[in-house]
Structures are given as C-alpha cells and as structure tokens.
Amino acid sequence: MKKLSTLLLSAVAVLTLASCGGNAAKKSECCGDCKETLPIGLQLYSVRDAMEQDFKGTLQQVKAMGYDGVEFAGLFNNSPEQVNAWCKEIGLEPISAHVPLADMLADIDKVIADYKAVGCKYIVVPYVTEERRPGGELFMQMVEEIRSIGEKCKAAGLVLLYHNHDFEFKKLESGEFGLDYLYANVPADLLQTELDQCWVKYSGQDPVAYLQKYSGRSPVVHLKDFYQEGEQEGDPYALIGLNEGEEKKNTAFEFRPLGHGVQDVPSIIAASEAAGSKWLIVEQDQPSMGKTPMECVAMSMEYLKSIYGNTACKDCEEAAK
C-alpha cells in the first residue's frame, strides 16, 4: 500500500511538471505569474564574413551568445543536409532563409527543396530591385510573381514572408503604400510579413502600429536598431553593400546594436507578442560604434537579456527542481 501511494505521488509530480513544460523558464500554462517569452534568432547576414570563413564555428558562437535560432542568408557552398545536421548538433532552430527573388524565379522548386532539407519553416523575399518596387514598371508583375511563389511554398508546407525596406512605403496612385497593396492583393495563406522595424521607422511609420495592423500575419519580426541625426547624407543602401557607386556616408545614419539607437525595443516586443508573432530576429546590416559584427550581435543579445528574460514564479521554479 505504501509503495502504491509513493507511485501515485510520483505520477502527480510528473504530471505537474509536464503541465508546466518541464522547464521553469516557460510555464505560462501553469499559473498566471509565469512569463513566457518569444524565442530570439539571428539573421546571419549580420555576421556574413564570419559565416563564409567558418560556418559551423560561427553557428556555435551564435548559440553560445544565447540565440535560439538562425535565419540564413546563403549556405556558403555547404549542403542543406550538412547545415541541418550542424543546427541539430549545436541546438539552433533553422527558422527561415532570405533567398533572392531572382533565385526563386529561376528555380523555386530547388529553393524549396534546399531549405526544407535545412529544416526551415519560412522562406523570405529579402529585397527587390528598383523596377519591382512601388512605382516601378514591374511592381504589379512582382505582386503576381510573389503570389505564384507563395502557392508553391504553401503546397510544400512552407510559409513565404516578405521582408520590407523603406521603399515599400512609397504611395501608389491610389494613395496606398506599396507594402499594403502587396499584402492586400496576395492573401495571408500565401504571404505573411517579416516587418523590418528599422526600415518601418526610417520610412516615418510607427513600428508598433504596423505590427498591430498585421496582427496574426507577423510570425517573424526583425528587431533592428539605428541611429540618425539630422538629414540623411548619401544612400543608406550603400551602407549595406547595395547600390554600388553611391557614396557611403554614415555621419547621419548608422545601424546600431539593440538598445543603442532610436528604437523603442520594449514596445516593439510587446506588440510582437500581442500580434501572435513566433520569433524575434536580430539583424544588424553593418557594425558600428567601433565594434566587430560579432561584438554587435552579442551586445544586442545582452540588451535583450536585460529587458526580456524568461521568468518563472517561485512555486514553478520549485516544482521544476
């Protein structure tokens, strides 16, 4: 009888832990005092030179900083299967991949096959050239191209996202922003958002309001900070290696680690949670403040840890011991 009572008590303890997820850091189902936070990933474009030199070693460093997952910007001649194996070994979630639209148009079946093999859930249109931007001669064509790509992704069990810059906030003749036109004309089951909050704010819009606008359609949010003083000099895209030939001036604009620029990061995170987002992804296109790219992304993670750590109530912490 005593043995039976002991077994019953053990079973109750196991069920209690299971209801909390078995992890003191994530127990929102257990009680109202626990706080469950969104996982944080890194857009690997931020450390692209290190990725090219030592792909696996860079992933290991990213994990050691505290990142939960990664968003790819190229595989640097590594096979999708090898990348998937490294992510599993290191303990990083392969969230998504930025893939040039030209590559998707050339062979979407290969793009889908490659990134399914990596283990990604999302494929992202990262940037479009001038003729495909709002007001460009191929903008309307691009909307239909994205619809077609979205259909292919959906059929394969993947989700297509669009990553904005500021040029999507150019108004069409209808008075509607190009970005809003795109989302209005490609349904949510074929295209969801990856709002880059640096470019939303840089364009003069409110990052929080845009997350609220696309609540339920914003599974992945780019957290990016920047510093701006006075009027922009030169072309900001020249700072990220685009628009070759343009002068690279950063006296008025530079990308910054989170918490070191103009963004209200806590409000953006709160809005992401309210919008039903699944991932927060850190991105810094160019290093600044005299730091290396790796130092910058480490600074962003340390800032996020300081304002957005997982917390559990004392009862749940004790239950998990």
Q: What can you see in these coordinates?
A:
The chain contains 12 helices and 10 strands. With 321 residues, it is of the alpha/beta class. The two termini are 27 Å apart. Residues 1-29 have low confidence and may be disordered. Helix 4 (80-90) links the parallel strand 2 (69-72) and strand 3. The strands form 2 sheets. Strands 6-5-4-3-2-1-10-7 form an 8-stranded parallel beta sheet. It has a two-stranded antiparallel ribbon with strand order 8-9.
What structural keywords apply?
321 residues, alpha/beta, TIM Barrel, eight-stranded parallel beta sheet, two-stranded antiparallel ribbon, 13% strand, globular, disordered N terminus
User: Structural class of the helix and strand makeup?
Assistant: alpha/beta
Query: Looking at the structure, what is the overall shape?
Result: globular
Q: Order of helices and strands, N to C?
A: HEHHEHEHEHEHEHHEEEHEHH
Tally of DSSP helical segments: 12
Largest sheet: 8 strands, parallel
Question: What is the rounded distance between the termini?
Answer: 27 Å
Instruction: Report strand %.
Output: 5-15%
Counted up, domains total 1
Gross CATH architecture: Alpha-Beta Barrel
CATH class label: Alpha Beta
- Looking at the structure, the CATH topology is TIM Barrel
Alpha-carbon Rg, integer: 21 Å
Mean pLDDT across all residues, rounded?
Answer: 87
The CATH superfamily label reads Divalent-metal-dependent TIM barrel enzymes
User: Largest sheet, order of strands side by side?
Assistant: 6-5-4-3-2-1-10-7
List unreliable stretches of 5+ residues. 1-29
Report the strand count.
10
* Share of helical residues: 40-55%
